[in-house]
Every structure is written in C-alpha cells, then in structure tokens.
Amino acid sequence: MSEHTVAKTGELDEGDRLLVELEGREIAVFNVDGEYLAYTNWCAHQAGPICEGTLSGTWDAEYDKEDLEVSMEWCNEDEVLSCPWHGWEYDITDGKSLTSKAQLPSHPVRTEGDDIVVSL
Ligand code: FES
Predict the structure, then answer these.
(1) Are 64 and 72 in contact, with CB atoms under 8 Å apart?
(2) Number of domains observed in the structure of the chain
C-alpha cells in the first residue's frame, strides 16, 4: 500500500472535491460534512468520469396502492453523485449505486496534521 499527501485540509472545504492523479489513476477526494472520502474516477456503468458529476440529491418515490397515487420527495441533498455520462447515481458517503449493486472503488483517507493523505 502506498500513501500520498494530496492537499492541506484548509484547501478542501465542505462540499469541495479535488481530482488528482496517483500512480496513473484519477482519484477524487471529497469533503462531505468534514469527512474526507476518496474514489477512483470510474463509473461502474461504462467507465465514465463519475467524480466529475454533480453532487446533489435525488427523488424518492412511493406508490400508494390503495389511493393509486405516487408521492415524490427530494432527499439526501448533497449526498448523491450523478455520473455526467448517463446519470447513474451513487451515495457519496459509501460509494454504493442507488439503483444497482455497483460500488465505486474507494480508497482510505486520513489526515496527518493538516495533510490529507490517500492510501492506494
Ligand atoms: S458511464 Fe456513468 S452512467 Fe454511464
């Protein structure tokens, strides 16, 4: 396992992301509510640049069989990463697809002093 200092904590505010190349791979580091998360820039659908996608929320729908009505609610604001190629959505907090069993490749991140360190 190799370790790489990618930035200082003060350079990556909450909601920010940083795309870096480590050992020939594009890796994005996200600051999600003060927690640093790193994923390979690779979408499980067709290898699109998932980490360059929009970070937003998603619609949750429920169907009431008795009333025959659909209700929709916007949820998980700033926790859903959408692929810019075809729109697959992933939970940024764990890298899991919202609609399949796909998982973004993740990497351990830690801070050492004010350094953000990614392990590959
Ligand atoms: S490559 Fe990401 S949704 Fe198709």
Answers:
(1) no
(2) 1
96-112 per-position pLDDT tens digit: 999 999 999 999 999 99
**Looking at residue 25, which CATH number applies to its domain?**
2.102.10.10
88 lines ligand 1 (CB under 6 A): yes
| Residue of 88, 99, 103 to mutate, ligand 1, most atoms within 8 A of C-beta | 88
- Alpha-carbon distance of 106 to 18, in angstroms, equals 14
Q: Which domain holds residue 76?
A: 3-119
Mean pLDDT of the chain: 97
Which pTM does this prediction carry?
Answer: 0.91
